[in-house]
Structures are given as structure tokens and as C-alpha cells.
Design goal:
CATH class of the largest domain: Alpha Beta
Structural class: alpha/beta
Number of strands: 12
Number of helices: 15
Oligomer: single chain
Low-confidence stretches: none
Helix content: 40-55%
Length: about 350
């Protein structure tokens, strides 16, 4: 009996969050579950893109991956093609149809919304979800979008999974320096692009720092991010740093603006905080309203004063922080882990290839 072959195509490489978390990290799980081979082709490479060498390397590797994808689609037989966020061109989609290859399309942001640098994304998204044998999304807003386009029976919501085996509460919180036992470390994990959401609550941090001892620990902000009058530790994001610095946080936050892009967010940073046993504060926007159980695993914030009041409250009550953190940890294990989400993914794949 021929061994099954899966082809994985991603928008980004390992450093790209959704490519890594929603696709690449599933490779060993898929190999174990289906005893299959998995070939992964990213759209672009990891590495430096600045400077002459960096730009040339990026230019040639991007075209190499395109040609590799074309070669693999034309000359190989695949049991399943899993596409994460990438827009296949018409030729590639025609090849899949003619060879009767099953395709899953996965996306985790409102990629159909217009952007100045990416024209035509709405039409491309519609083409992909209509061409796919099954669609997977990360939030209720994206699920509703697909259903509005007539994709009803072959679409599922599978949240962006967190690895609860690696991300977990420390066995024992490290004893703080005597001078900083009252220090509240407020944690945020994101990217240069999402730093704008952190800026939205900068006045809260300034106001709060005048009455209590706070430290803002931010992973992944853009280089010139500063909040005057607030103790800020900026850390370059990496997988290793993410795991390490989650252990230093007392609270995890996810501010968002109220717009269509933010409403479609899948809440992954909340899952990270919850898995690490942290209470969470989040803007009352989109999927956040379902992830955060107000007063149980954290608080939802509608206005600036909410952020101030709830941060101050959590600073004053370490027992409350612990109780909320453990409630969040339980939710992460039950609903948002790879163990849970992989079973949902297997169910989709089984419908297509078995």
C-alpha cells in the first residue's frame, strides 16, 4: 500500500506566527497520525531581508520556492494539500482540480479586507475558499464571513493552538528582589505591526505608574516604541524568549481597536497567557468576548478607565491573580491546546482522504 503524501504550503516561514503555529507545528503530529510523508514549501524564506545580500537572497529564494511548488504540483501525486493563508494562482488551482487532489485552506486573519499594498485580496480569498474542499478559520468572525459567501457545510473553526506542554505555569514563582516585591509586571506579546494596539493604552500605563510600581514587559514591539514615564523592557521576539519571559509576567494583556481587522483576530496571545497561568485583560472586541470569562479568568475592558481599574485591582490581590490564572490554564488545556485542536484537524482530514 502506497504511503500517503501531504503537501503543506504556507504564506510565511517558521518565523511567521500563523505559518508556524497553525501549520508547520502540526507536521510531526500528522506524520504520527497518518504514517505519511509531509513536504513543506513556504512562500518566502526566513532570514535578513535588508542590505544587498539580504534582498538578493530573499528575491531568489522566493522564486525558488515558487518553482519548487509548481514542480511538486505538476509531477507529484498528493493525497492532500494543506494551504495556510497563501493565495494559490489560477494555474495551481487548475492542477489540483484536474488531478482531483483534496485541498484544505486555512486562514486566521481578515485577509479579504482591502490594504493599500495588497489589492484584490477580497477576490483572491473568495477564490481560495470556493476552490477548497474544506476551509478552516480561527475566529467566529472569519467563520461568519465564509458562511456569508456560501461556504457552509465545509468550513470549521479551529482556534490557533498553544502548546500547553511547553507553555505552562512555573512550578514556583521566582522570589522577587525585596525592593520589587510590589512590582506588577504587565506582559504583552506581539509584533512591530501590532504595537499600535499597545499604544492605545499607553496613557493608562502612565497614569498607573504614578500610583503603583509597574513594569511593562513587551515582546516583539517595533524598535522605537517608548512610553515616557513608564518602566519598559523591550525584548526581541523569539520562540525561546516567548517561553522564558512568560514566566516573568504577572498579567497578560491584549488591547485591540474596534475595527473589522481586530474583530476577526483569533486571540492567540490570550491562549499563551492562559496556558502560562496568567490572568488576562483584553479589549471587549470580537472573539475576545468569548475567550475571556469576565471575572473568572480575567477582565474585559470597554474603556480606558476599565484598564486602569482592573490592573490596579489585580496588583492589589495576588490571590485573585493566582485564581484567575489557574482558571485560564484549565481553559487552555480543555479548549485551545494542540492535543484538542489536532483531533479537530484529523476529523476534517479524515472526511477528505479516508
Amino acid at each position: 500500500m502506497r504511503k500517503k503524501s501531504f503537501l503543506l504550503v504556507t504564506y510565511g516561514n517558521y518565523s511567521h506566527a500563523s505559518s508556524r503555529i497553525r501549520a508547520v507545528n502540526y507536521i510531526p503530529l500528522l506524520k504520527k497520525e497518518y504514517d505519511c510523508s509531509v513536504t513543506w514549501i513556504p512562500r518566502v524564506s526566513d532570514g535578513i531581508r535588508s542590505g544587498v545580500y539580504g534582498r538578493l537572497r530573499f528575491f531568489f529564494l522566493k522564486r525558488y520556492y515558487f518553482l519548487k511548488l509548481a514542480y511538486c504540483l505538476i509531477f507529484y501525486k498528493w493525497d492532500l494539500v494543506f494551504v495556510q493563508r497563501f493565495f494559490m494562482n489560477g494555474l495551481f488551482l487548475d492542477i489540483l482540480r484536474k488531478k482531483k487532489i483534496k485541498m484544505i485552506y486555512d486562514f486566521d486573519d481578515a485577509i479579504y479586507l482591502p490594504k493599500s499594498s495588497q489589492k484584490g485580496n477580497y477576490e483572491k480569498t473568495i477564490t481560495m475558499i470556493n476552490s477548497a474542499d474544506h476551509v478552516i478559520v480561527s475566529s467566529p468572525s472569519l467563520l461568519a464571513f465564509c458562511k456569508d459567501q456560501g461556504v457552509i457545510s465545509n468550513v470549521d473553526l479551529i482556534t490557533t493552538p498553544v502548546d500547553t506542554r511547553i507553555i505552562k505555569p512555573p512550578d514556583k514563582r521566582e522570589e522577587k528582589d525585596t525592593r520589587e516585591r510590589d512590582l506588577l509586571t504587565i506582559g504583552w506579546i506581539g509584533s512591530p505591526w501590532t504595537t499600535k494596539y499597545l499604544l492605545d493604552v499607553s496613557d493608562v500605563f502612565r497614569k498607573l505608574s504614578k500610583v503603583i510600581n509597574i513594569r511593562l514587559l513587551a515582546l516583539g514591539t517595533h524598535g522605537d516604541f517608548e512610553i515616557k514615564g513608564v518602566r519598559l523592557d523591550k525584548i526581541q521576539w523569539s520562540v525561546e524568549n516567548e517561553i522564558h519571559y512568560l514566566r516573568e509576567m504577572d498579567i497578560g494583556i491584549m488591547p485591540l481597536s474596534k475595527d473589522k481587522w481586530a474583530e476577526a483576530k483569533g486571540g492567540y496571545k490570550l491562549f499563551l497567557y492562559m496556558a502560562a497561568g496568567l490572568p488576562v485583560l483584553a479589549s471587549s472586541v470580537g472573539f475576545n468576548n468569548q475567550i475571556v470569562q469576565h471575572g473568572v479568568n480575567g477582565y474585559l475592558c470597554n474603556k480606558q478607565q476599565d484598564w486602569y481599574d482592573y490592573l490596579k485591582k489585580l496588583h492589589e490581590d495576588a490571590t485573585l491573580r493566582l485564581r484567575m490564572g489557574m482558571a485560564g490554564r484549565s481553559e487552555a488545556e480543555k479548549k485551545f491546546s494542540y492535543k484538542i485542536n489536532s483531533q479537530k484537524l484529523y476529523s476534517v482530514i479524515d472526511q477528505l482522504i479516508l
